[in-house]
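Form 7-S
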Amino acid sequence: MFRLPNTGNGSHLSDYSPVAALNGSASPGLGWIENEIGSRGPAEPTAGPSWNGAGGRWRLWPLRLLLWATLLIIAFRGVTAIIFNQGTTLRADGTTAAGATTAQFPVTLGDAYAMAFGQVYLNFSPATQAQREQQLAAFVPASVAAANPDLGWNGAGQLSLQSEQVAGITVSDPTHAVVALLASVNGQLMELGVPVVASGGGVVIPGEPAWLPAPQRIAPPAAASPGSDPVAQRELMAELPGFFQAYAAGDSTALRQYEAPGVTLAGLDGALTFGSIASLQVPPGGATRQITVTVIWQVPGAAESGVTELTAAYTARLTELQSGKWYVNEISAVTEAVEAK
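Output:
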């Protein structure tokens, strides 16, 4: 057994609740509490502010403020997401401008379906009208096939599709889009806007497509002439014919003497043979130059009589590793028009 400390007035804590309750005694009443407080006198002042009366609740306020701030941020982001997503237009890859994936229109399926439709729609002839109507019926709703089996064609004349490919797609929502087909029809370039509706893994052409103009042809910007290095040009005019002969043949052994260290060029594997160099532009500079060269190729077996020639323009990055000896780092197509010189 242990004895609880004296309270200062001759009484012990064991006389009161909860200790007294354990001994079978009644707990003290309110009167005792008032007498106890009065007998102790005024409390002595402490050195600083006391938070004992708050029971430590002041420590909860920072947590409450953090919680309210978090809830406000979540609510704000939710409201803004609802507002801005209402006007979001899907890209061809099924994402929004911010890159977030949304409920996507099946772009690949829509493109393929529109191309298959275009191959039927852009070919017609009175001799094959019934066959065309049957083929078109597989792409459109039954009501459209019954009311407009030729989708606007009056049954006269002929149309012949030479080539087509997808030029783009405009997605308005997860079920509706318009696929633009770039096509060559009767020797003319045009675009066909094909409406496509997709839902639940299915797809349909809801009605007639639209005949649209081909992309506008523009004039390329004029390229600034960097000048010419006559010395390097003479050196390369003597070296490049051998390189292009090896390049046309795809001769890896012959190409090795022209390749820069660490570079391997594939060549054309005999698809063409070298004819001559039509023009060469070598800008001034240091040991590395970006040249432009126009080559006249010959096409083997392309004509029964005479020689078939094709002119092609290339840009190549060369490095001079020793005086007068240039090595090829890479070769590719030019991006600007080449002037004959």
